[in-house]
Every structure is written in C-alpha cells, then in structure tokens.
Amino acid sequence: MKSAGRIIAAALLAATPALAQPAGTLRIGLASDIDTLDPVLSNTIAGRSVLTALCDKLLDVDENLNFIPRLAERWAWSEDRRALTLTLRAGATFHDGTKVDAEAVRFSLARAATLPSSRRRSEIAEISAIEVTDARTVVLRLSAPSAPLLAQLADRAGMVMSPTAVQAAGNDFARAPICSGPFAFAAQVPQERIDLRRFPGHWNAAEVKVENVSFRPIPDSTVRILNLRSGTLDLVERVAANDVAPLRRDTRLRYAEARGFGFTSIIANVGNGPRAQNPFGQDARLRQAFDLALDRDALNQVVFEGANTPGNQPIPPGSPFYAPSFPMAPRDVAAARRLLAEAGQPGPQVTMLVPNTPEFRQMAEVMQAMVRDAGFDLRIEVRELATAAGMMNRGEFQAFLIGWSGRVDPDGNIFAFNHCRGANNDSKFCDPRVDSALEAARASVDPAERARHYATALGIALPDRHRIYLVHEGWRFAHATRLSGFRALPDGIMRLEGISLN
C-alpha cells in the first residue's frame, strides 16, 4: 500500500505544475500511451483517439453508427458494388497548407495498402485500383464487393495524410505527423504527453472550441480520476468498473458511457517465430485445457464487478453476427486435466505478456489462480502497452493478454485476426477454409448470409484457441462539470469537436 500511495502522490505532484495550463487547453487522461502517430501503423485505442483529433477521415460514424461525411462529402456504389466513388469536400487543407485533393487520398490509400508494415493492408485488401478523375473525385475499384469498406474508411484506413509531409519525412513521419484534422501536432514526450493545437484552417473550425489539447497517459484508473478531481485533468477515458459508483455520486464530475463491441482476449503464439515452438503454441489441446480452466463469469465479477459481458467469440452476444452454435462452455477443471494428460503435458509452463494497467494485471492474476487448478504454471510478464504491442508484432511472446476496441462492421473484429494474411494476425494462425469463409462474408451485403459465413469461419478457428476470448467491455468516461459537449460513442473514440471548457 505504501508503494501505491507513493505512485498516486507522485502522479499528482508531477501532474499539477505540468497540467496547470490556460482554460483553452483540454487535458485528457489516457489509459495507455499511444504506439505511433502514423495511422497506417497504429494499432491501439489510445492511438485511434489521438489520431482522430489529428487526421481527418474520409467518413465517420455518429452515435447510432450511421456513416456521416468527413473529407468525403458524398459517396456512391456502382450497381455491382465493385466501384465506390468518393466526392471530396471543397476547401479542405492539410496542416502544412497544402490541399486535400483526390491525389492526396490516392496517395494515403495506396500507402496503407502497400507499406510492408501496414496494419491497414487487410482492411482494404479488395481495393485493386484507385482512380483520380478530377481534383475532388476518387473512384475505388474493387476486386470483389466489400461490405465493410465504408466502415474501414471511417477509421484509420480512411485517414488522409499530407503527401508532401510523408515524402519529406519518410520513416520519421510519426515524429511530427501532418494531416488535416481539427488539431495539429505540437509536441510529444513518450510516456508523458501528446500536445496538439487548434488548426484554424479546418473546414469545421467553428466546432473546434478549445485552443490546445494535451493527452496524458496514466495507466491507473484511480490515478486518472484523482487528477480529474484535483482539476489537473478535464476528461478521462476507460474508467475502471470499480470507479463507476463513486463517480455517479460525485456532483463535481460527470460520468458517460456507451455500449461497446470489442473484446479482451489472450493471443496464443502458434506460428510467429521461435516463441511459438513450445507445447502451448504447437498443441491445441493445451490451449483448449487453458480455456476450460477459466471461469469467465467469476473473472467478470472479481475484476469488473459484473459490468462487462463474458464471451468466447469476437462478436458480443446480442449482435446479429454472434454465432449461437458456439455457446460459452462452463469451467471444467477435470476436463482440462484430462486434455493435458492426453497431450503428455500435466504441468505446462506458460508465460503471458500483460499490459501494465491495474485491470489487466488483476485479470492475469485471477486467471493465474484459475489455471493453476488444472496444472498450469502461468508466469506473468508485465510491460508498458506500447512496448508490449511491439513485442507482439515481432513475435516475442508466448501468450498475450490484450484488448481490441471493436469495429463498426463485424469484419473488423474477425478478418484481420483469423485470415492467413490478416494484418493483425499476430498468432499466425492460418487455415485456407477460414480464409474462404471470411472472404465470402466480405463479399456479401446480406447480413444473414454474412452471419452464416462467420459461423463457418468460427467453427474452424475457435477450437484452435489461437485466441481465447474473455469479456466484452463497454466504454466508460468521466469529465469535469466545466466541460460540455462530450459524446460517448460505441467505438470508444473520443471526438473533440464540439467540446468546450466553461
């Protein structure tokens, strides 16, 4: 307890002078640091929120998940849905003063599709050609119909970067990114802050009501809320479930929440480099035993006070794309032990990489006790999130406990993690039958048909347990009463336009 007290005190002391800024500065407490400020490479929810303020997208979604215009003011599909025509907004400019035109859109989409390290490649894989017909018109030619394409263009794949800046900076673009969002990059100190300044040339500048934004990564929810109560933060994201009741009673603060469609899961390394070469990575029976040793309901109660929804699929229950033919199995330690004995591994050791937030650490510790009953020796390796994400990308893990914020279209929760060429397939699971089903789901615009294809894919992928799904979490925010205009959306991304400080 003494060390926890010192951490909280240090956080408050460090934050007070640094965050005592003019009323025109919106100060936001993030639950983790970003991984990168390059939309093509970014893979964290913190990065999505910062980049949404920095880089305009072609489309966006509203509170009801309807697509709304951003840089593209209109869009139209061809009759065969193999061409999407985007008409761009007139007068939009990048932070460097250059124009946002069709050639800039072509450049950004081509970079997202071809950069070897791109995390967006599989999201827009059906784009076979990008045609610029005039300064404000782009036609995307597709190799096959793509039901989730609009959803991808309403996320990081649709963020447009200044070609001039990208070409000048090369691999260093993320150090001082130049896009066309409502805020421009000012400074970044890793693990400490990301500062943005209002962009007066933005096409929607009238709705940009604060002069500056300072994002502060503070992994502990309690410390974030202490900073909010002390007046050194104005808005905090990802509030821990056990902080909700006190927040609702606090008349000095406001609480906001939205349903989510993401998930928390354990990634098992089954083919990503040397760390996959062990019994847990090579024998699905060990992963199935691990899964059977878990009690998701108890995990949800102990860590999240019952606030989340236990689950064993990438799509939450209640979604039309949820596969009811694969219900969540109850905990069965005896069956887990039988599988381990059958595999000749009665006491396997597994090292799990865990981000350094209290919730992730507590989840790991609860699961450590659960799987011990089946014979597992679960070791916990805690790392800062951005560091852990880099280790995941490089295959430097055996198992990794991590969350996914979810996407508007179910494809965003399934394809990239389960397709052989999926950009987020860090486990390196690969089965051509799954690929075929996922590609068929993308090509259909009939929700019932898509759901059938997803059920086929999950019927093959889920038993492998290369991902062990645990819970589906909603989005919880808190802010000072002097802040108005904040909206909590189901995708968890903070939109800063319309927010003002009184």
UniProtKB/TrEMBL annotation:
What name goes with this protein? Peptide/nickel transport system substrate-binding protein
Q: Where is the signal peptide?
A: 1-20
Q: Which Gene Ontology cellular component terms are annotated?
A: ATP-binding cassette (ABC) transporter complex; outer membrane-bounded periplasmic space
The subcellular location is: Periplasm
- Identify its protein family: Belongs to the bacterial solute-binding protein 5 family.
A single BP term in Gene Ontology: peptide transport
Record's keyword terms, sorted: Signal
